[in-house]
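Fold it.
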Amino acid sequence: MLLYIIRHGETDWNNIGRLQGSADIPLNENGRQLARITGEALREVPFDLVITSPLQRARETGELVTAPSGKYFGRMIPVLEDDRLREIDWGSWEGLGCRAENFAIPDENFNLFYTDALKYEGSPDGDSVAEVCERTGGFLRELIHKPDYQDKTILISTHGCAMRAMLNPLYADPLDFWQGHVPYNCTVNVVKAENGKARLVSADKIYYDASLCVDNYKAVKPQE
């Protein structure tokens, strides 16, 4: 089994620095273009299936990325949704600014999300990072043991925190949750699974011009 795990393309909320977790924000045109470029680069990958977060930005990314492969191989690629692939839920914090210039999150310890994420509890009415690890990890463990999928090539379309959470057990240093930074939009990781064991074979690859990478989320100092 070969898994291509992708973070969705850019959204307007990515651009303006708002927490969008479970908010169903669509791709913007740049996000769609990044997905198209990525899809063209992967057109010769024989995708059998897309499994996506139910949020529209992830589903559209998955469909755009696999469209060239479907055309190349002359087949329809089915799309399945799995709620375990959704992003961290920020609860009542959804939509709040999280950059220095627009910071509005009512938590003086919010930077812990970027500096020591595994210890971050999240919003009072949302998810903790540990909970995201549990559900995405459960998804991956279940998937790699499915007998019918052992010879399949699958695109998994998800989100930045959810991607890092899912891959966390496969990193050389799992304590470094972000592995340096939040994954860029349309970042691709490749996992190979055999005999119920998964290993990361390609990490954080992008297929568009690196000058277009934007690190929208990082530790910030709230303005006084």
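Residues 2-212 form a domain with the Rossmann fold fold (CATH 3.40.50.1240).
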